Fold each of these.
Amino acid sequence: MRLALVIATILVLGLIHTASATTYINHSITITKPGVYVITTNLMGNGRGIGMAIYANNVTLIGNGHTITEFDTGVVVKGNNVTVKDCIINKNNLGIQIKGNGNNLVNCTFYKNGFTADGAYYGKGIMINGNYNKIVNCTVCCNGNSLIYSVNHGEGIVISGHSNIVFRSNISDNGDWLLGKGIVITGDKNKISDSKVANEHTGIYIRGNSSRIVDSSVVYWGMGVGLEIVGNRSDISSCFIEQRLGGGGTGIGIFGNYNRVSNCIIKIKSKYQTSIFGINIAGTNNKLINCTVENGRFRFGIATGYEPPQFLWINSKNNTVINCKTVNSEYGIFIGDNNSKVVNCNASNNIYCGISIDGWNDTLII
């Protein structure tokens, strides 16, 4: 009987302890202890400081749709295993900065961060410096539009850590049509999956190595680049790239080495628009497999060996184009480098030439 009473007492105390682990917040605080924290009202700053600083591990911050607004940085996460969910983070200099590892952003909106006078310096919705973090089902829109600068470098998501994931998120209209970027990846082994990037000058910019972009779509402005790969050994698959408005841009630009692009579709939205490259390969040892450049007035559907905007010949070589299709470009496939291969490709309804070879030597067409 006494044993049963002791066990019952322990269980009751355990329930009480669990309940007390939830803290309700109605003002800006620094979290230094694990637990569940629930925001009960909108939090507004004066342009300085941090809205919510999370320095502890094992924290869950629940916004319940409330806003964190007008701070220097809306949220800073230095802890590990932290979840931030259901928050609207807007009109801060910087939306959120994640310095810790293994954290999660879930169902959050990052909107118009960088709208203050010095917004051209920050101008970012999400900045991830840590590793193994996840962004899930988030909206990142209109960040980096400064009030006092006519042009700006606004960026939706910037990832400098490694092994981070962006999943089922929408990124759009960050910066302006001349300089804005949707996602910037400078770290290694990051992944973008099932996400949409729209209305950016540069949709996704990859400077790191071994990144993966899969089952995602990118819509970019005419003079920009849908997907720009400067790093090495990245894998891009099953993506849709579309140009809207204006002309002179590039659907996919590959300037690194040993990258692989497969099962992608690149197109221009309107038949009245023009562009320069559907896909441009200016690195070495890259592979392009099962891709289609269609419905466009691209000058070059697929090209190797060029480096825009000066159109200089570069030391590009050993690239492979396999099972690809180009339709309605000026030049369907243009090979301007060395030792490259074009295998089982289809270039049809092009204005000047289906396949043109202007490389220095040893190009193979099968």
Amino acid sequence: MPDSTKLPHLSGREDTRVTEYRAVSGSAVAALLVGLVSPVALMSEWLALVPALALLLAAIALVRIRMHASELLGRTPAVIALALATASLSAALTDAVYTRWLIATEARQFTGQWLTSLPAGDDRAVALREQLGEQQSVSEVAHVETVGPARRNAQWIVAEIYRIRLTGPGEQHDKVLVRLELQRTNQTDGTAAWRVRYAEVVD
């Protein structure tokens, strides 16, 4: 005997909804989540990997959504993630470049004053003065090259080469190259202190 039980029939509109169902792209969701935390890149240069990852995930999501437009959703969160990651990465790179320029400028200012005065209470200055000759005085300082700055923990290390002009007895002038390594340390009061780690005459 035939089964007279009738199965529920979906309306035409409900049939269309079932047919048009599309899944949300997992890559798009992941990209958005990583993109939202991308501003942490401003805290450390290593954390620039966070917005870089968001960019990669967003790009993968957009490609997959484009290739499977009838099956996947999520273009909007992927685009938002792309914008957040791009802005965060750009800001982090700009901040890193500006910080390094500022550190290098501070180092040149400090070194120029240090070489000109060679303070008697500084062991590095005393040792350098012995290499230059006790009868010589520094009359001119010219910056030649900066290596770095490089960040080590909470300190900045800068290596620099200067050409200095020496004036000795009888107004004799000599020019020598001096290589220095500087260290910048943040103080508890928010200021920064520079010191010369070593200084030597370059042959």
